[in-house]
Amino acid sequence: VLRTLPALAQAAGPRANPNATVKRRRLGRTGLMVSEVSFGGHYKNPDRTHRIASIERALDLGINFFDAFEAAPSYREISMVGDALDFLGRRDEAIIAAHLWTFGRFYDMDGIDRMLRLLKTDHIDVGWLTALHLTLTDAPVETAIKAKEQGKVRFIGVTGHEKTQVIETLKRGDVFDVMLFPYSYGMEKGKEYHFPMAKKRDMGIVTIKPFAGGSLFRAKRQIEELSAQKEYAGISPARAYLKYILSNPDISATIPGMTTAAQVDENVGASLEGKLAVGEERFLKDSLAAVRREATSQYPFMAQWLT
């Protein structure tokens, strides 16, 4: 049975947590106020117990934007978001973004209904369409618009790992309310087109790959050697990268993947601490070469975004 939430019909968004700590930002013309550090949705084999605990901790700290990424064919990651919010009884605190067209799998209206059942809700707040496929056909947009008219999707967003695909999609019309793309320290090509276009159209910006697709953590030896230096004592690499991203006022939210409550605490700390310290700025510069090597080796498309 789908849960009906008439209170979410308004663009003002879900109720605020009275104990919220993470700062909120406006998601462009949607009018939604989203947590600047939000909850990324792409996990590999997530554990159900950890998922519930991490989502509960996120809600307790004021995170309200949750990305539900398709993990076909099991859809396990999507269903875990729905299961967790349903188990906790806190769907009304969450803004859910879900992918409607990903990796060649297109959700027609029946597919969107299936997505809603997996998420245990009657609507998706932001329905993502992947730019790769939008350069080939208008069918996904037409379906998303139909779903929006029926109240099953409130707002439409475009996502893309490939820089040029997002650009070409945006040139085709002002259909999208939000865009999602990679952005982090040293990955700022989005400033050339994506940010100006978002400002012109009043689109919200959600950024992914804050740690360059986990490259910050895969470069473990180099990062540990840096962290061992006296001048970098006490610096959290993850927080330093997130704080840099949040220093850009045009970004509505960044969505790191989080699998444990401890990771939620660590990442939310970036919002609480605010501006980068001088030592953190130096750490970013000194860590960039190692992170870049890992990023371009693991994900060649990252090179498009590097500055």
In short:
By secondary structure, this protein is of the alpha/beta class. The chain is 40% helix and 15% strand. The chain has a single domain (21-211, 245-274), classed as TIM Barrel (Alpha-Beta Barrel).
Question: What would you note in describing this structure?
Answer:
The protein is an alpha/beta fold. The chain has one domain: TIM Barrel (Alpha-Beta Barrel), CATH 3.20.20. It has 12 helices and 10 strands. Helix 6 links the parallel strand 7 (153-159) and strand 8 (178-182). The longest helix has 21 residues, at 278-298. It starts with 23 loop residues before the first strand and ends in a 9-residue tail after the last helix.
Topology at a glance:
Layout: E1 24-26, E2 33-35, H1 48-60, E3 65-68, H2 76-88, E4 95-102, E5 105-106, H3 109-119, E6 124-130, H4 131-134, H5 139-149, E7 153-159, H6 163-170, E8 178-182, H7 194-201, E9 204-208, H8 215-218, H9 220-227, H10 237-246, E10 253-254, H11 261-273, H12 278-298
Parallel strand pairs: 3-4, 4-6, 6-7, 7-8, 8-9, 9-10
Antiparallel strand pairs: 1-2, 4-5
Helix pairs in contact: 1-2, 1-11, 2-3, 9-12, 10-11, 10-12
Radius of gyration: 19 Å
Q: For the terminal residues, how far apart are their CA atoms?
A: 49 Å
Give the count of helical stretches: 12
Q: How would you classify the helix and strand content by structural class?
A: alpha/beta
Order of helices and strands: EEHEHEEHEHHEHEHEHHHEHH
Number of strands: 10
CATH superfamily: NADP-dependent oxidoreductase domain
Domain count: the total is 1
Q: In percent terms, what proportion of residues is strand?
A: 5-15%
Quickly give the CATH architecture.
Alpha-Beta Barrel
CATH topology: TIM Barrel
- Unreliable stretches covering 5 or more consecutive residues: 1-16
CATH class: Alpha Beta
Largest sheet composition:
8 strands, mixed
